[in-house]
Automatic annotation (TrEMBL):
The gene is ntm. This is Ig-like domain-containing protein. The keyword Transcription does not apply. SUPFAM superfamilies: Immunoglobulin (SSF48726). Residues 23-122, 131-212, 217-301 form the Ig-like domain. Residues 1-23 form the signal peptide. Belongs to the immunoglobulin superfamily. IgLON family.
Amino acid sequence: MKNPVYWVVLAGISIALIQQGLPVRSQGESQSDNKQMDNITIRQGETLFLSCSQGDFVTHTAWLNRSSILYAGEDKWSVDPRVSLVTLNQDEFTIKIEDVDLTDEGQYICAVQTSSRPRTTSVHIIVQVPPKIVNLSKDLVVNEGSNVTLMCLANGKPEPAIGWRMLSPSDDSLSSDSEVLEIPFISRYRAGVYECTASNDIAVDTQTVELTVNYPPSVSDGRDVGVTLGQRGVLQCEADAVPEADFEWYRDDRRIFNGFDGIEIEDAGAFSKLTFFNVSEADYGNYTCVAMNKLGSANTSIILYGPGAVQDGNSGTSTVFTPTCLLLIVLLQLLLKF
């Protein structure tokens, strides 16, 4: 004897349930009680439990997702390994879906056939998805004065709010409440780390972009150095530049190389040192430090002087007064009196 077929009519969709010994009833003869439950909101990745009450004289029961049967009694129809039966007894019919995803969103129906008539309980599942930044500007290297645009796109449900801020160094005046942050005519002081934040009711996602601003060197005023003969003398030069500056040293118009006449040149980041290990009379004079990168150059002059020299600040020039000079000045003052 063939298994008869019972047609359960749910939301206008006829679903064939193969059941043993159940009489066939036409659609026009069916009567049912339909119950709509409140929506259930669940977060992506959590486990969803679907439960409906059975009651007395239940002959057949099933859980359906839209047009697909998940469970018909104890028989699993779904091929999804995440779906499993939790409880099936006279009082309760419960299944669970693990690791819920956005594709699980929609209407679920519990269909129960009693000895008198069928009844259904339906519930709509809403899956919330934490925000995830899916498109972010790459780390940028730009020249000072350029116009910069940073972009950040994110997915999520509810739709996430997106914002930008300057994270390091912190600057509350530089922020945006949209997907795009515009920085016109950028200066070196806007270089740093920028943070994009995407947030909704579920969670927050953040990612950062590092912005490097290139600019030409600027050199600090050189400090003149006085050293006695035979002693060690060091001239120092400091330059602010991105990328870091390369240094060159000159005596008058002649470039000085490391090891030249016992002179050592040592570069370390923003600093360069010119070291004399045994200062001689010939070493006294004016030296020029030149700092350069691909955007430009800058220089400063430093004087190495010996005993008896009087320096005029840090201007890079010096005036030396010898006893002969002092005698001439005295004679000139006496002549002026007459």
